[in-house]
Amino acid sequence: MTLYEELKARGLVAQITDDEIIDVINNGKATFYIGFDCTADSLTAGHFMALTLMKRLQMAGNKPIALIGGGTTMIGDPSGRTDMRKMLTKEDIAHNAACFKKQMEKFIDFSDGKALMLNNADWLLNLNYVELLRDVGACFSVNNMLRAKCYEQRMEKGLSFLEFNYMIMQSYDFYYMFQHYGCNMQFGGDDQWSNMLGGTELIRRKLGKDAYAMTITLLTDSQGKKMGKTAGNAVWLDPNKTSPFEFYQYWRNVGDSDVMKCIRMLTFLPLEQIDEMSTWKDQRLNEAKEILAFELTKMVHGEEEATKAQNAARALFSGASGDAEHMPNTQLTEADLTDGSIGILTLMVKAGLAASNGEARRLVVQGGVLVDGEKVAAPTVSFTAEQLSKGIVIKKGKKVYHKVSL
Length: 406
Prior knowledge:
Pfam family, one: tRNA-synt_1b
Enzyme class: ligase
Strand content: 15-25%
Number of helices: 19
Subcellular location: Cytoplasm
Shape: globular
Helix content: 40-55%
Distance between the termini: 56 Å
Radius of gyration: 24 Å
Organism: Faecalibacterium longum
Structural class: alpha/beta
Main location: cytoplasm
């Protein structure tokens, strides 16, 4: 099976500009890039598709360029947005870029020139605006740009001229790297298709040469929502933002209808094994979820942390709490207690399980809070220093576990 056939079989290919792409990547002739705007100090589970694709392509002999968007982040990608992105300082962007590189190295081999990491701030921030307009402005049709899907949602509430330039900046990236680094291909999510076509067209019109683009299927659940978020928050690759246990739990708790798709698209398990797993039903789906969670946690945090997270999850599922040390935890001090005890509402706020006493009260009243497997009966329940010294496990809802001790 060729690389392209495998990508198709895993459900990763969405659109391609030209069938020549197939020969280029199958024979390891692609120098390709994927862009990552530095909007946070950590990559998220939503970046998994891009990172694993880069690894697959590199394993087949192609050369990846991880493009850090130090320049484009200063504008903000409007794709899939109904509002403008937060404006970041140059210092924030530089810090976030450094964090990205550390995480990417777990997926991509940058040794001996096998891959490059570039920052588009190095060429975008030095551009002269009038010169840029004269150089590439005539290559873009405003009519075509306004029809682009990446602007669709922003047009409903008002697209700023700042964001309107994003397509030109991304296209210029491809044009610049084509000339200076031999980059002949761009990959990205399917919501980037218009921006990617802008790059191939700019190269064709300015240089008279062909460049290629391929989009990958966005990772969505059975309801069509993007995966990689939990309770409205991103699932981060940084263990200080999302612990290995929480990361494992996120994938362990994917829906029955989504687990095989995630295994096929995100893991490196052989397709033959995945095809056999796709026949699993009922209880064996839980086994498939464990495999998914373990494989992805191992990729991000290493096998030791993946094993710890799996053991902790299994212990909780069986009703035990002996392996609770590997879940997120909060260490209280005597100063946190009042007359030798602490109420459940205050406890949940200190543990970060609720933003306020009011929110914690609602969760308790609705029956959504358990301590050591027992439902908290009332918002007036409190815990003594003796109980806390042994450590307690709070469960919020169906999926969030947290250990608290004194």
